[in-house]
Design a protein that fits this description.
mainly alpha, 2 domains, 5 helices, single chain, 101 residues
């Protein structure tokens, strides 16, 4: 049976790989969005609405929304971890030494 340190090491390794995976697929997504925007820009009239010409930070994207997404993901991850360790909690409690009175 692996030790806590070994499990934590594996978790950290998995987290690193997961983050690398996310980062690896972010660039192609950005590239595809840029291509789609270029395609759409060619079909729009020259007199474009001001909102379309503003930067995404000021026009569309809100930092509050990003925080909500991150918070939702953190809640989800905590729920998954809690679900994974729940069956082991009773076993851990049984193995604890009983204190003498």
């Amino acid at each position: 049976m692996p030790t806590i340190d070994e499990i934590q090491s594996q978790v950290h390794e998995f987290q690193g790989k997961a983050l690398d995976y996310v980062k690896t697929y972010q660039e192609p997504v950005v590239d595809y969005v840029a291509k789609a925007a270029d395609t759409m820009a060619d079909s729009l009239p020259e007199d474009r609405p001001e909102l379309l010409t503003q930067g995404i930070e000021s026009a569309v994207f809100q930092a509050g929304f990003a925080k909500k997404v991150i918070d939702a993901e953190a809640t989800f991850v905590k729920a998954v971890i809690d679900a994974a360790v729940k069956p082991f909690k009773p076993m851990a409690a049984k193995k604890r030494p009983v204190k003498a009175a």
